[in-house]
Amino acid sequence: MDITKAQRAQILIEALPYIQKYSGKIVVIKYGGNAMINPELKEGVMGDIVLLSLVGIKVVLVHGGGPEITETLNKMGKESIFHNGLRVTDAETAGVVQMVLAGKVSKSLVNMLQVKGGMAMGISGMDGRLIQAKIKDENLGFVGEITSINPKPILDLLEKGYIPVVSTIGCDKEGNIYNINADTAASRIAGALNAKSMISLTDVTGILRDKNDPSSLIKALTLEEASGLVKAGIIDGGMIPKVECCTEAVKCGVERVFITDGRIPHAILIEMLTDEGTGTMFTA
Q1: % residues pLDDT > 70 (the chain)
Q2: pTM above the 0.90 mark?
Q3: CA distance 12 to 16
Q4: Strands 144-149 and 177-179: what pairing?
């Protein structure tokens, strides 16, 4: 679609109140799913994050990397086993998770952000004891349940003008490494940072009243309404843990939490800087 220079200017003017609202505030973006695998979408997400950073918004990028972990384990001849949707993680797998997330995935994202003109720094949940954890379930091995978040390493990077890129690996005082669910980590980090908002990029449109009808998107939900939809079975399956993480973030003080379709180009900008948005917003 061709747009005129006047239309471009109008788009920027309409974005101004949103830029003013978020300027100087912290926004946590949970990054995963198709937006992380598709090269064009990945380019767009990195560009969006750098743009937000350059207009004074303090962006924290929290990422997973399930497909990359599975691919690496396959190359090693090691089978990926899942229990209730979580990866069973023995000591060897925990080492692979650390290598893939804090190494390959993190450094790739940092590099892309810097190519786009941003200042980025990779940090894992082990650095500065950012994410402390304990065993969640003996059957899952080294899958961690978060016991505390130390936001200081992230705040230090933000103060210096960096975009922190956080790998979701936890640790305990004995030095054990834990695989942490990225949605859970993002919600707890957003709460600890007193973030203005959190955006979870997913492979779904948002919360649908009828999961077979994309036009039945629910644009906004209170926590009470979300709880009612879970009880009614409208929110079910894999969407329940995502909604629980959004609820957790709001309860921790995050003003607005979004489940957004990461398959839409520039979904972050549409969600943050326009009236329409693309997904479902959760508020207290």
Answers
A1: 99
A2: yes
A3: 6
A4: unpaired
